[in-house]
Design a protein that fits this description.
There is one protein chain. The chain has about 180 residues and is of the alpha/beta class. It has one domain: Roll (CBS-domain), CATH 3.10.580. The chain is built from seven helices and nine strands; from the N terminus they run βαββαββαααβαββαβ. The strands form three sheets. It has a four-stranded mixed beta sheet with strand order 2-8-7-6.
Amino acid sequence: MARGTHRNVSSRIYLLAEKAADLMHENPVSIHENATIKEAAAILLDRGISAAPVINEAGRPVGVISRSDIVLYERERGERLPPPAEYFAEDTVDVATGRSVPVGFHVEYPDTTTVREIMTPVVYAVSPDTPALQVIQEMLHRHVHRLFVLDQSGVLIGVISTMDILRRLRQEVPETHQPYEAK
């Protein structure tokens, strides 16, 4: 907008949602607690998400794994690796098999660390009937970017991210909706 130009724009915005079910994405991508870090990273990157709930054998959420968790883990793990010179020694031997490794190659041992070992072991969740205002207050209070939605039996049925909330904001209330007022 050019300097000195004023538009009659309302500064009020409305959230077109009454409860958590109106905000959530159903059937969120989840990662099993026994998945490896590499598998979790691939899922997060391939799906374009920053975090996912971690579920156990019963399908119940037991934590959250995020890209940040993986980066922190890799940073800590990287500090304990042997210096690069050891990888490129002329007479490298695979410790597991005793066979020589050609010059310029190195033996890489797969990281079997599981998601459960590095995840954040807390799940912040709401029910589908939680008022939308309470969902927002909970996210602000807990300083989190997402809340999970669990049904009455504790099964994961959805996720609400800050982007989901922003997508439901409007400058004007459509005629079919009345503004939701907290009581």
